Every structure is written in C-alpha cells, then in structure tokens.
Aldehyde dehydrogenase
Amino acid sequence: MSVKTDGKTYLNYINGKWVTASIQKVETSINPANRYEIIGYVQQSEKEDLDYAVLAAKEAQVLWGKLSGAARGEYLYRVANALEQRIDEIAETMTREMGKTFLEAKGETARGVAILRYYAGEGMRKTGDVIPSSDSEALMFTTRAPLGVVGVITPWNFPVAIPIWKIAPALIYGNTVILKPAQEAAVTAAKVIECFDEAGLPSGTINMVTGPGSVIGQAITNHPDINGITFTGSDAVGKSIGLGALKRGAKYQLEMGGKNPVIVANDADLEQAVEATISGGLRSTGQKCTATSRVIVQSEVYEPFKNKLIEKIKEIKIGNGLKEDVWMGPCASESQLNTVLSYVKKGIEEGATLIYGGKRIEEEALVNGFFMEPTVFENVSNGMTIAQEEIFGPVLALIKVETLEEALQIANDVKFGLSASIFTKSIGRMLSFINEMDAGLVRINAESAGVELQAPFGGMKQSSSHSREQGEAAIEFFTSIKTVFVKA
Ligand SMILES: NC(=O)C1=CN([C@@H]2O[C@H](COP(=O)(O)OP(=O)(O)OC[C@H]3O[C@@H](n4cnc5c(N)ncnc54)[C@H](OP(=O)(O)O)[C@@H]3O)[C@@H](O)[C@H]2O)C=CC1
Ligand SMILES: O=C(O)CCC(=O)C(=O)O
C-alpha cells in the first residue's frame, strides 16, 4: 500500500480571505485510483459559515453590480490567465481527486480558461433592445439587472468546467457568488478559487464554502438573501432544491440527469458509430450527464456493430488516469462504484444479457481503487431499470430495433431528454431525428457528449428546469429584464 499526501488543508474563501470553518472540522479528500492516497483536507462548514459568506456577497454586490461590464470582464480575463498558468497542476489535481484521465482533465481546464474569456467578452456586448413605443414621443427599451447573490451548487464530474460555466456568467452580469462544490472534488475547486483570488476581485464578490450538501447545499436553498441558485447534479437533489427555492420565491436553474441514446441506422458508418459510442459512453468512466447509455441499433447492422464494439472495448486500458497509456480511470468514489454495480445486478435480475464486463476490477495493481470493467448488456428492453435510470458509469445497453420509427419511439421513452445522437447517411433520417427527438442537444454522426461553451446547453423533459446554460443563453438566468419607458 503506498500512501502519498501533500497533507494540505484547504480553507473556505469568504470576503476575500481564506478561513477555517466555524467548527474546525475537516473532511479528507482521497484518490479514487488509490484510496490510501490523500489529496488534501477540506472544511466541513456549518450554516453559520454560509451566513457569513452570504453577508459578504450581499455587501459586495452593491459595488460589483455598479461596475461596467468591461471592468468586470477585465477581472475575468485575469482569472483566465491565472488558471492557464496553472493548467497542468490543476488538471493533475483533478485526475488525482476524481479519477478522469489527465488528458481529459487538461482539456476540461483549458475549457475553463476559454469559458472565462468568452464571458469576459460578454461584458462588452448588448444587454437590451429598443422597442417601438405606441407613444411616438417616448423611448422604450429593455435593460438587464443582476439577481443579486447567486448560490452555485456543483457536482464532482466536471470540477473545473461546471463551476466556471456558472460563476463566470453570474459575475459578468453583476451578481456576486457563493460556490458550494461537491465535497469529492473540493480540493480542485479550491484551486480554481485560488485563481479568482489571484485575479484580485473585490472582497466578497466570489466566495466558496465547502461542506456536505445536506448542510451547506440545503442552507443555500433556504437562505433568504440568496436570490438565485444554479445547480448541476442528481435528479432527486435538483428537484428538492427547485421546490425549496420556489417556496421562498428565489430563481433557480437545474441541470440534472440524462439517459442518452445513440441510434445506429442501417446505413451508418459503423467504424464511426463504434468510436463515438465508446467515446460518448465510456470516457470519464461514463460519468457525464451527456454520456451515451442506450445504444439502439437497427437489426441489419446489429451483429457487425456489436462485434466491432466489443473488439474495441477489449483494447481499453484501465488504470490511474495519470499514466499516459491509460484511457479510462476509476469511478469517482466507492459509493459511485457500488451504485454502478447495483445497476449491473439489477440488469441481470431483470433478464438482460451481460455480454462484456460487469465486475469491479480486483487485479492487484488496481484493487485499492474504485475500478470497474467497461460493461455491455444486450437483450435490453425499454422497461428495464438499466434502460430507464441514469447509471453514471461505464455501462452500455444494446437495444435491437427493426425501423427508425421504432428507434425514435424507444429513444424518447424515458423521463430524461438531455442529449441524443444518430449515425446515418440519409438526410431524411437526420431531419426526422432532429424534429422528433426530445432532447436539448441532438447530434448527427457525433457522440452524445461534448458541449460547446458558446452554445446553449440544457435538457428537455426532466433533465433540467427547462432553462439553458452557457453561451448567450446564460443571460436569461443570471439577470432580470427591466422594460424602461422614457418620456420627456
Ligand atoms: N447531471 C450531472 O452532471 C450529474 C449527475 N449526477 C447524478 O447523481 C448521482 C449521485 O451523485 P451525487 O454526487 O450524489 O449527486 P448530488 O446531486 O448529491 O450532488 C451534486 C451537488 O449537490 C450537493 N447536494 C447534495 N445534497 C444536497 C441537498 N440536500 N441540498 C443541496 N445540495 C445538495 C452535493 O453536495 P456533496 O456531494 O458535496 O455533499 C453536490 O455539491 C450520480 O450517480 C448521477 O446519476 C451526479 C453528478 C453530476
Ligand atoms: O458533455 C459535456 O461536455 C458536459 C457534460 C456535463 O455537463 C455533465 O456531465 O454534467
């Protein structure tokens, strides 16, 4: 057993200072590739720590909201530069803390830099429209007001990109922020906040309070001085935040699960479809809300597709994501691994046929980590649990169909509607898919995952609260429209 630790304790960031939690309790953050490696210690905060942060954010918002967009943008450019300078170190921390490969972690951190620069530029763009008034002597136009203090509650699967794609638009439009990152990735989040600190934002503009979701997340939901809450995570927690926010009249935005299908049509390029199914389904160990989890294949190409898929999956190298030749890391935590294993058990019990993987990896070099075999089921029918619930692990369910109509009907027969893709050469099929697929993100001849920062992102049905994040769409959540009527 090797024990490696930098032993560092990461503090809360409140009112421009790094401070311990009021009860002086910490939680250990470990490496899911080796549970005996400690990444650091993070604060187990209490409600009073959050109250202190909210007070600071509320006071800071008065001046921050009065700065020009360009001035706020200058701060975001500085944060981007600070993050870019530390890209390797922060990506390595991400890999060690939540398991994704270093290459993916570095790509995500670079995406964080790009998001910051994109929203820095937004500070210079228009925020309203002139609308002709029915009174010819009046001027009518819209402008935007910030919400005030925004609570940002984030998951562990994209510990750099998701906090940044919520924090950057919140700040550029004049809000101040309290970040509550997932405990499982809080060291990585603390390093991101160090970049904000380095950029010298006014005290109280950005704050971070770590602690359990049931305490700090819940307190954000209930806090009367938090005007908006933006959340990404599970369906159950998202809905409870939505209900809590609605009860006290706060604005909320929820990005939750997916059960994303890929349709492989008779005329698909099978090599391309296999590559994309593997990339979309198994990268990040399947822990993306946009991950492919149902693979709906027309019967004519079912066997060749399946054989190619299994052949390629056999080549996947699993291990510690810091190693160069590793393609898939561990599940992010023991509880996530156990959840995935319980879905595999359920799949077998309900009559699906396990054709590849399905077990925890017990070989000596990996036994201290939370490693799972890439897993493929066939003979999956749509009523089965593994075809309906978000697994969030490296599990693919193959579903054989005769027609495209049947494929679309099955693809839509779930409560989620986040992303979906199809592989076909027929323009007619592409158009049917675009029109009939109930998903916020529809992709043609491309994997289901992969969000572009300049485009709106969000789901239909129960995948989101029907709002959109990222790109220009972010302004809709982080501001309120004011309609102004002026008469001399
Ligand atoms: N859509 C997506 O991208 C994601 C989906 N998921 C789904 O959720 C499942 C479980 O993952 P998990 O990490 O437990 O997801 P959660 O929804 O529990 O966690 C997401 C965030 O919400 C916080 N939180 C937890 N409970 C509350 C609460 N009562 N009030 C407010 N905030 C709260 C968490 O805090 P903390 O964890 O620090 O206690 C974390 O910061 C996964 O298997 C997957 O299906 C998970 C992550 C991302
Ligand atoms: O597919 C992506 O790039 C983003 C996925 C995502 O937002 C998530 O898993 O929470």
Q: What stands out?
A: Residues 260-444 form a domain with the Aldehyde Dehydrogenase; Chain A, domain 2 fold (CATH 3.40.309.10).
